[in-house]
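[scheduler] slot 2 assigned
[scheduler] job type: sequence-to-structure, two independent chains
[scheduler] chain ordering preserved from manifest
[runner] begin chain α
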Amino acid sequence: MDSLSGLISRGTVALDRETRSSHVLEVEAYNSDQGSMRSSVRVIVYVEDVNDESPVFTQSQYNRLGLRETAGIGTSVVVVRATDPDTGDGGAVAYALVSGSDRKFEVDMSTGLVTTVDYLDYETKTSYLMNVSATDQSAPFHRGYCTVYVTLLNELDEAVAFLSAGYEISLRENIATGTEVVQVKAESADNLNQLTYRFDPDTSPAALALFKIDSITGRITVTGQLDREQGDSYTLTVVADDGGPKRDSTVVSITILDENDNSPEFDITSDLSVAIPEDTPIGQRVAVVLARDKDAGRNGLVNFTLITGNMQDVFKINTANNTYGEVYLNARLDREAVDRYLLKVRATDNGSPPRFTDVSLTVNIMDVNDNPPVMQSPRGYNVSVNENVGGGTAVLRVVATDRDIGPNAMLSYYITGGNQDLTFRIDRMTGEIVTRPSPPDREKQQQYTLTVTVEDDGTPTLSTLKATGDVKDIKESGIVFNWHRCNIYHKKLHSF
């Protein structure tokens, strides 16, 4: 203060409103002699504020540890706070994120509340270190800084994913149980829990009975007997789960490859016994057998052969469509020589080594009327009969045979010549010649020449046999038949 003028001015020490906002001065006025006559006055000096302070945060670093990665947009993270001792706009603070937020966070410029503005992902980034500024609102705009450290909490929010969308496997049937089929593998970016594997409940019961999966390793092994003929393919749906909501599945397609483990099987429709006429033409089909093999490919192709019973190659067999065995006549038949053939038919597949099955085929040869009757004694007969014998006296029995059978061998006997006076008659069934009630009379006729015809009952073939005998002399002591000539006539009618 100037002692003469009373002017108060600032001293050498700088003013600081934030330290002391006012000063109270006691001022005295007195005479120059500094006598007892004095007067005083109180002077209060108020220090006006200027923006000379910077905002200061309450903490140099704010931490939010374990923020859930599934936190939604707008989730509160932390509140930062800064103060500025200045007044007015100089003490008003505005907050801003300077760096490190990766556009995942924002700070309210007025309140300092840090919130999320985008979805977080632990698997992408596990932590954030952000710089936050606080700026006062008057020139020269002082600024203060702090850091915000946020760590994320890993959660089961990531989808489990198989390394392959599908697996295609081929296995041979009859493979040993316990054989590993394939190992499926899935991953989860969360990597929090142990992945477990299992078959989908909708997997077919047939597949579940043949395969199992290790819940930890994902190895699929065979547990049952694989039989391609029971099932040639299986589809396994495998589910991988880490306990979270986003599990995954994959498909394992298994194809069963064939092995030659089945022999051909003859069908019940196969001919096992047939009957054919002995005049069947060569080249005609006489029987068909049917055999199938459950195996696939070459293992299921069947060929047919005749292995026994085919005497003199009377028959041959051709394979049709690797399924049918067609038996054809290969030579002429003669029932009178062989009336039955017991053939063994073999069905063989094309596997390696081949498998086969045999079946018996009986071919019965039916008779046709192809043989005429034959006289049993073609050299003749000698018979003597008294002249006056009674009627019905046996003179001779003509005997003939026929190699055919059945009606074709049933013979009938007739006197067809030399018996104009009906002295004799013949039994149609037995061939016995007897005298009629009127005996032969030497004085009327001394010699008879009789013609006997023998016929069988074959249809449509008719066979006839004519035997001619001469009666050279009739004596009172008897009749002599001298059968000296036997002529055979054979007539064959064609069948329709």
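[runner] end chain α
[runner] begin chain β
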Amino acid sequence: MSRQVAAELLKLRTTRVVPALLAVSVGLSVLMAALIVLLSSTSDIGGDVGGRLVLSSGGIVAGILALLLGIVTTAGSTGTARSSPPCSPTPTGCA
């Protein structure tokens, strides 16, 4: 079990999609929160209701991108979904 977890963590570290989706998630969450604060009046975002509105809008974006990350990372987990090399590794090269 620990070898499987280590393999999954290695896959997350070596996949370029993970940092890109994390950056997009943080960026879109900040952008949505800023837009809500800038376009709303003070009475709309004051108190508990306004705080929930700002936080939930960023959470929705982060949740959708986390779902996308899960789909992308599990799609290639079987080992057969990876592309094969253009030729078989032989001592003479491509045969």
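[runner] end chain β
[qc] chain β: Residues 30 and 58 are 7 Å apart (CA to CA).
[scheduler] slot 2 released
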